[in-house]
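User: I'm putting together a small comparison set for a docking exercise, and I want a reference complex before I start. The sequence is below, and the ligand is NAP. Could you produce the 3D structure with the ligand included, as structure tokens?
Assistant: Of course. I'll restate your input first, then give the structure tokens for the complex.
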Amino acid sequence: MRILLAGAGGQLGRSLRGVLAGHDVVAKTHGELDIADLEAVRAAVAAARPDLVLNAAAYNRVDDAEKDGDDAYRGNALGPRNLALAAAASGAAILHVSTDYVFDGRGSRPYHEFDRPAPRSVYGASKLAGEIAVRELAPRHYVVRTAWVFHEEGANFPRTILSLRDRPEVRVVNDQIGSPTYAPHLAEAIARLLETEAFGTYHFAGAGAASWYEVTCALYERLGVRTPIVPVTTEEFPRPAERPRYSVLATIQEPRIVLPPWQEGLAAFCARLTEPI
Ligand SMILES: NC(=O)c1ccc[n+]([C@@H]2O[C@H](COP(=O)([O-])OP(=O)(O)OC[C@H]3O[C@@H](n4cnc5c(N)ncnc54)[C@H](OP(=O)(O)O)[C@@H]3O)[C@@H](O)[C@H]2O)c1
């Protein structure tokens, strides 16, 4: 398959480049293709003539989005709109990636693909707008929702919390529960999904569930970090954007594609850390 990959420099983009090596991939970083620029997107699709447009690009600065709403919508709604328009016009399918933050997090069982989105943040609302644009404009679409993505390179929670290990203690939220997802595991699941041609919406995230506190405990234990970890509540650690309290993702749409448990992802992350954080 010939694939145009947008957002190729991010955590998922880099991981996809690895697992899609058997395909003919035209990879574009943010510097090479701004998906918010419709003419640039049309030109890239016309030049690549892809069978599939794969969108790994996103504006992911969840807290900044509360004040930079227009930028968040440009990256997360206008960008996918442009890619969907160009894909549909050229006869290509599209795979777009979205987030658990489209849910309000007030549930107590894992969210599946048919649960009703109700975002509580600008970031979540902008990502939901992107999903809707893709569904409306490109009939041959996959929308893959994922969560809590991490990779040994990039901006993510495990790297941030590791960078704080020299403090006397670290305080970590213990009442937000989600699905930590290792980017290469997600990339492998996406590669398998592409073989199915079963278009629709999918939830792919690391198997199991954890709080940020539990992720920190597992990470520090694995790396032999002895810094005391203090569990705190969301109220004790306020952030500009509201986070879902519970946003574990489950799939009933494609139960044959299950990601490894998040602990396996964390083990691979630790094994592949090369540069000091
Ligand atoms: N990270 C998470 O925890 C998480 C959780 C749930 C869902 N997701 C979703 O998973 C997907 C992959 O995320 P990720 O973790 O790989 O994110 P990432 O590491 O932040 O990568 C996103 C990439 O998109 C690029 N980008 C931003 N705006 C762009 C634009 N207008 N045009 C082209 N490229 C642009 C970024 O470039 P710059 O760095 O130059 O801005 C970055 O290289 C996204 O759809 C994201 O919303 C992520």
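The CA atoms of residues 4 and 26 lie 5 Å apart. The chain is about 35% helix and 15% strand.
User: Thanks, that's exactly what I needed.
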